[in-house]
Amino acid sequence: MTARPTCAVDVMRIVVVDDHLMFAQLLAITLDDQPDMECVGIAGDVETAFGMVSALQPDLVLMDARLQDGDGVAATAELVATHPGLRVAVLSGYIDTALMRRAAEAGACALHPKDGDLREILNAVRTARAGTFVVQPQLLRSLVAHSREAKPLHPPLTEREHAVLQFLAAGLDASVIAQELGISVNTCRGHVKNLLTKLGAHSQLEAVVFALRTGLVGVSDVGP
């Protein structure tokens, strides 16, 4: 939240929502140390977060999954629905398959443990900005291992859409996938959009979780 000189770097404006003030302040300092990031505000509760997002119009929100006055995942769903283009990355001290499923359904662009390496959180933020999902592969594997629900029918994906889905599961972004498949980035994004529609998903994370649970992609396809 410190002033910085005007430069050519495209700076991502971020709001941190966490009721643990020390963690929030540490995260804010870390963000401000990055040339391409700026923490524009810290909120300790859901109500303050909504007002801050409306007033500041940030590019991304780092949202604690569990807040003292409310549910961070439910808040994520409301923010995504009411602020088109806003990305929300969910952080949590404890992640289970139920939380992953809820975060994906809420439209979160990332899910990351709070006790992880801060550099990994920064990488998650940067990747989220590029329009991809970020989630630790072991969490996806855990979701598949613990899923006991009946598998719905596979949607009719084209061969190219299936290839794109596999690359998404490996954690690649649109530009890299386009290079791998020899297509334009816009064409790749079109395939991603079609995938989300066919799978009934609100985010790439939700699409990959669905694909893993239903066998559209295998656990071995998930990135390292």
Q: What labels would you give this structure?
A:
six-stranded parallel sheet; two-stranded antiparallel sheet; Arc Repressor Mutant, subunit A; Rossmann fold; single chain; 224 residues; alpha/beta; 8 strands; 2 domains; globular
Strand order of the largest sheet: 2-1-3-6-7-8
Could you state the order of secondary-structure elements as H and E? EHEHEEEHEHEHEHHHHH
* CATH class label of the largest domain: Alpha Beta
Secondary-structure class = alpha/beta
How confident is the prediction overall: mean pLDDT? Answer: 83
Give the low-confidence spans: none
CATH architecture identity of the largest domain? 3-Layer(aba) Sandwich
Instruction: Tell me the count of domains.
Output: 2
Shape: globular
* Record field, number of beta strands: 8
What is the CATH H-level superfamily of the largest domain?
Answer: Response regulator
How would you characterize the overall build of this protein?
50% of the residues lie in helices and 15% in strands. It is an alpha/beta fold. It has 2 domains: 12-135, Rossmann fold; 144-221, Winged helix-like DNA-binding domain superfamily/Winged helix DNA-binding domain (Arc Repressor Mutant, subunit A, Orthogonal Bundle). α4 packs across α10 and α7 packs across α10 (204-214). The two termini are 34 Å apart.
Short description, anyone?
Helices cover 50% and strands 15% of the residues. The chain is of the alpha/beta class. Strands 2-1-3-6-7-8 form a six-stranded parallel sheet, with helices on both faces.
